[in-house]
């Protein structure tokens, strides 16, 4: 199946031969569904902070952050092209006739192209679009009246204009301020300045970017950093990384043979956001905040975000203090059965680990407790589900037969199974990708995060290359399978903290408009 030239190619690109062989086997056998036991809810697996707990958690973070190394980790490599899918389709369909105009006006819903043009002046990028469009003497307002929609959209989306169809979301103008506007990247700078600042006044942010966009990220940061440092009395330390080529996954034919390029070489594809566990593994910090690039709001709505980011970190620190004290005690001689039972109760009631088998000896109980406690920790914000049930917080079966908290995507759950489907239908919350992580052990040494990935949680999809069908493999997702063996806590956060921009018209929502 793999010839000597293939093996040399695998070696040259930095991939691991055994891993590639395992990936081919995964295509043949597929991945098992995750067995969910029940949906996590309040108070069964999801903690809802009362006012006292909220204040205690934020206060603890404010106190300990002064002596902590903090990093804000922002996955930002995805292109924004999907934001403009409807606009690209409109360009293809528009015939500049009455039939096309009637089709445009027939759908006046929020996500419609009609609504885009109706509210075009309310986008933060409007002024840039106007200047780019009118540089050759044309008038944007006149073109709108004349229904010259396609040239306007091409100015917005194509390289000769603003190139929004090719840029990543982080570099797009999201929000208007008095006489100014901000990109999503800039909003993350502001957030980091408020809740991600260490005691020495430094705010560290790490963006994962695609190679073709890194220079543009660096240019924008260079342009705006000084103004934000002055305004927020902070010193930014910005880092970048790209998804490592070694994490790309091999593609196969529908018959599960290695897919080959026209020159006979193996074809590898990016392994999805789960590959970023390698990037995260390179971050050596005490506290790591993780948040998607597009989930930001203007300043007048940021207070709730600030409060709950600090609260999640405070809950993390409270939990970590207990875990570290237990682990240090487990290293000491003479631990009693009573102490072990207290720790076991902690696992059951705080970590929500269930279905624990009886222990033959005290040493067996001690080893089990230590193995469960001595892991990376994450606290995940969870939002009340106001739409269809899907990926979110569940109790699920672990590899060792115990039950514990997991984030599960809907594709991981066997919806053809009536019991699993019923559990999924009862989900009350979903995962907004709002995490705070601790990746050092109780001795201050960083964990190797790649050891806590569940390789059985990958995903296979159908794609094509050069007109030929292929099967692609995505690695376990960053916040589900890639963190499967972490210690996990779920905390309810307000819906106001979740404001993603999936389509360009989402920027017209009140959460993304001015005060």
What would you say about this model in short?
The chain has 515 residues and is of the alpha/beta class. The chain has helices spanning 4-12, 17-29, 51-64, 85-93, 98-106, 113-118, 126-133, 140-145, 149-157, 184-195, 214-232, 276-281, 302-330, 337-349, 362-373, 418-425, and strands at residues 36-39, 46-47, 70-75, 173-177, 180-183, 202-208, 235-241, 249-250, 268-269, 287-291, 377-384, 392-397, 403-408, 429-430, 434-438, 459-465, 468-474, 487-492.
Describe this structure in words.
The protein has helices at residues 4-12, 17-29, 51-64, 85-93, 98-106, 113-118, 126-133, 140-145, 149-157, 184-195, 214-232, 276-281, 302-330, 337-349, 362-373, 418-425; strands at 36-39, 46-47, 70-75, 173-177, 180-183, 202-208, 235-241, 249-250, 268-269, 287-291, 377-384, 392-397, 403-408, 429-430, 434-438, 459-465, 468-474, 487-492. With 515 residues, it is α/β, with parallel strands linked by helices. Among the domains are: 42-77 and 247-382 and 432-512, no CATH class; 86-157, no CATH class. The strands form 5 sheets. Strands 2, 3, 6, 7, 10, 11, 14, 15 and 18 form a 9-stranded mixed beta sheet that branches. Strands 1-12-13 form a 3-stranded antiparallel beta sheet, covered by helices on one side. α3 packs across α13 (302-330), α4 (85-93) runs antiparallel to α9 and α10 (184-195) crosses α11 (214-232). The longest helix has 29 residues, at 302-330. The radius of gyration is 25 Å and the shape is globular. The model has no long low-confidence stretch (mean pLDDT 95).
């Amino acid at each position: 199946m793999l010839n000597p030239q293939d093996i040399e190619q695998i070696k040259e690109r930095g991939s691991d031969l055994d891993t590639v062989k395992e990936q081919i086997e995964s295509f043949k056998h597929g991945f098992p569904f995750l067995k969910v036991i029940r949906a996590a809810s309040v108070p069964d697996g999801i903690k809802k902070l009362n006012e006292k707990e909220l204040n205690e958690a934020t206060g603890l973070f404010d106190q300990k952050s002064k002596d902590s190394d903090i990093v804000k980790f922002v996955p930002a490599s995805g292109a924004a092209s999907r934001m403009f899918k409807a606009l690209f389709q409109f360009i293809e369909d528009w015939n500049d006739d009455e039939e096309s105009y009637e089709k445009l006006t027939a759908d006046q819903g929020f996500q419609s192209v009609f609504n885009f043009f109706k509210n075009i002046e309310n986008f933060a990028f409007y002024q840039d679009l106007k200047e780019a469009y009118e540089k050759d003497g044309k008038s944007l307002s006149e073109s709108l009246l004349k229904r010259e929609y396609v040239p306007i959209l091409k100015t917005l989306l194509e390289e000769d204009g603003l190139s929004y169809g090719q840029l990543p979301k982080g570099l797009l103008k999201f929000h208007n301020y008095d006489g100014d506007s901000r990109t999503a990247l800039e909003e993350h700078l502001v957030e980091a300045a408020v809740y991600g600042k260490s005691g020495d006044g430094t705010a560290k942010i790490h963006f994962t970017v695609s190679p073709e966009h890194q220079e543009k990220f660096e240019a924008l940061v260079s342009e705006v950093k000084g103004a934000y440092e002055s305004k927020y009395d902070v010193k930014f330390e910005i880092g970048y990384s790209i998804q490592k080529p070694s994490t790309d996954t091999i593609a196969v034919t529908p018959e599960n043979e290695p897919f080959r390029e026209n020159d006979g070489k193996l074809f590898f594809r990016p392994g999805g956001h789960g590959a970023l566990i390698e990037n995260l593994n390179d971050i050596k910090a005490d506290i790591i905040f993780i948040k998607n690039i597009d989930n930001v709001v203007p300043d007048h709505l940021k207070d709730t975000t600030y409060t709950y980011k600090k609260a999640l970190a405070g809950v993390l620190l409270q939990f970590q203090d207990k875990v570290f004290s237990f682990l240090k005690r487990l290293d000491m001689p003479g631990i009693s059965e009573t102490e072990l039972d207290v720790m076991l109760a902690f696992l059951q009631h705080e970590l929500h680990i269930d279905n624990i088998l009886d222990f033959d000896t005290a040493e067996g109980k001690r080893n089990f407790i230590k193995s469960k406690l001595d892991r990376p920790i994450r606290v995940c914000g969870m939002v009340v589900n106001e739409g269809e049930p899907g990926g979110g917080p569940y109790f699920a079966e672990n590899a060792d037969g115990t039950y514990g908290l997991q984030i599960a995507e809907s594709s991981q759950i066997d919806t053809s199974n009536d019991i699993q489907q019923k559990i999924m239908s009862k989900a009350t919350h979903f995962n907004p990708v709002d995490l705070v992580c601790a990746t050092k052990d109780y001795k201050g040494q960083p964990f190797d995060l790649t050891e806590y990935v569940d390789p059985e949680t990958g995903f296979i999809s159908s794609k094509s290359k050069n007109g030929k069908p292929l099967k692609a493999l995505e690695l376990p997702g960053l916040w589900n399978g890639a963190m499967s063996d972490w210690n996990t806590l779920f905390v309810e956060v307000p819906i106001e903290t979740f404001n993603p921009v999936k389509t360009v018209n989402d920027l017209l929502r009140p959460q993304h408009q001015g005060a």
